[in-house]
Structure formats: structure tokens, C-alpha cells
Design a protein that fits this description.
It is built from 8 helices and 7 strands, in the order βαβαβαβαβαβαααβ. It starts with a strand and ends in a 15-residue tail after the last strand. It is 38% helix and 16% strand. The protein has 258 residues and is α/β, with parallel strands linked by helices. The longest helix is centred in the middle third of the chain and has 17 residues. A 7-stranded mixed beta sheet has the order 3-2-1-4-5-7-6, sandwiched between helices. The relative contact order is 0.19.
Length: 258
């Protein structure tokens, strides 16, 4: 059996792009390790959700632990760096923010986990972090260097399929391209550059359940959770990856090498 390590930026990031492969890999008997870089403390939280004395970082840790159990991860590692916030926010300037941590320092910590686990595959993000988030970009840098240090050969960028996302949004009669908050020139990855597509429809119930436990992020997950199962499968029943070092353009891989 193989060992899969999924490296993410914040609590809740594990669900959309890799929740399916985590659940299905665990079900197939592989060992799955989830590593999260930051505490998520720069995120927004609905009024009145936190109990007196509870911090957002504490609540997001609890939510992540629940999500990891639902998805079947065997080990959860939280590196505990400070959340850098969205691009252009004041948190970007903190010297403690993950985006400002020396890459080599963070990579050594992640490489230690990869070595302990004898990882066969690591997933991270592409060089733009999918949509330009500073912490996601840093996950790419740190993850790439950690894989190099630990000698992990199978490195996969978990990516957003730009073409699928555009098609899905255009199918919404209320969508207006002129008013769209998404710049499709910089958002996600063109399907032609994607090397790997994994059908995770069988894990869609687990993905939905994992979304539901991230109560602090209901603003992000809320519209998705209202989808019927078939709609959710259509939108999130495939997870997309680009294998580092592989040339795109051939037949797509249908699984990770575990």
C-alpha cells in the first residue's frame, strides 16, 4: 500500500480539491497524511459562532480534526504558521505570516514528515496557488522544496480546472461575464495543461459531510451545500492534478500512483 501526503494552506482547503482522493485512498487501504500550514486565523467567522473565550484558530483546528476523520486521514499535522490573509490585506505584512517564512525553514519541517511517512505521493498547489492567495503560493514553494529534500518523486499540483469552472458558471442564467469577480486569465489551470483527472464521485457524501463541519467557513461552503447530490457530483466529483515533470497533452492519468 502507498502513502499519500496532501499539503494544504488552511483548515477547509483539504475538502474541495483533495477530499475525494483522501477518502478513496484511505478506503483502498493506503495511508493518508494531511498537512496544513496555517491556523486559518485571518478568516472571517459568522457573528455569534465562537463561544466566549474561544479563538478562531482553536475553532478551525477542531473543524479540521473533524474533517480529517470524515475523510479518513490517518494522521493530521498542523504546522501552525500564522495565516497570511488574502492578497492585499494587512496580514500580508506580518513577519510571522506563512507567506513570509523562509522557504527552506518550512520545507525542512515538511520534509521531516515526508521522510517519517516514506511518502509515495505529495499533493500541493500550482505556482499561482490556484487563484493568487499568498499562503497557497507559499504551499507550492515549500512543498516543492520539501519533496526535493525528502526525495519524493511523485509530486502533483492540485489544480482548478479553469475550463470546467467557466463552463459551469456560464451555465448559470444569472451569471454575467462583465460582472464576474473571477479573472479567468489568472484563475485555475487550462484543461489542456492538466495531466490527471480522478473520478471521486463515490466520495461525494464524505466531501459534503466534511464541508458541513467547517462551520466558520459557511460563507464559502453555504451555496455548495445547497446543491443536490447530482449537482455536487457534477461540480466536485472530479479532482484535477498536474503531475510535476510530465508533459501535458497526452491521455490523462485517472489515478495517483499509489
Amino acid at each position: 500500500m502507498g502513502v499519500l501526503v496532501c499539503f494544504h494552506a488552511h483548515p477547509d482547503d483539504e475538502v474541495f480539491g483533495t477530499g475525494g482522493i483522501i477518502r478513496l485512498s484511505a478506503d483502498a487501504g493506503h495511508r493518508v497524511v494531511l498537512v496544513t500550514a496555517t491556523d486559518g486565523a485571518a478568516g472571517e467567522v459568522p457573528d455569534g459562532l465562537l463561544v466566549p473565550g474561544e479563538s478562531l484558530a482553536e475553532r478551525r483546528r477542531t473543524e479540521l480534526e473533524k474533517s480529517a476523520r470524515i475523510l479518513g486521514a490517518h494522521r493530521l499535522v498542523m504546522l501552525g504558521y500564522a495565516d497570511s490573509g488574502m492578497a492585499g490585506t494587512p496580514e500580508n505584512n506580518s513577519p510571522d505570516a506563512f507567506a513570509n517564512v523562509p522557504v527552506e525553514q518550512a520545507a525542512e519541517r515538511l520534509a521531516a514528515v515526508l521522510g517519517e511517512e516514506k511518502a509515495d505521493v505529495i499533493t500541493l498547489y500550482d505556482s499561482n496557488g490556484g487563484y493568487g492567495h499568498p499562503d497557497h503560493i507559499q504551499v507550492h514553494r515549500v512543498g516543492m522544496r520539501a519533496a526535493e529534500i525528502a526525495g519524493v518523486k511523485n509530486v502533483y499540483e492540485s489544480v482548478i480546472n479553469r475550463d470546467q469552472m467557466r463552463e459551469m458558471m456560464m451555465s448559470n442564467p444569472e451569471w454575467n461575464n462583465d460582472d464576474s469577480p473571477i479573472d479567468f486569465e489568472s484563475f485555475g489551470t487550462p484543461e489542456a495543461e492538466i495531466t490527471t483527472r480522478v473520478d471521486v464521485a463515490a466520495a461525494i457524501a464524505a466531501k459534503r459531510a466534511a464541508m458541513q463541519v467547517h462551520e466558520t467557513q459557511i460563507g464559502d461552503f453555504g451555496p455548495v451545500l445547497k446543491m443536490a447530490d447530482e449537482e455536487l457530483k457534477a461540480a466536485f466529483g472530479t479532482e484535477w492534478f498536474r503531475r510535476v515533470g510530465s508533459e501535458p497533452g497526452g491521455a490523462k492519468e485517472l489515478s495517483l500512483p499509489l
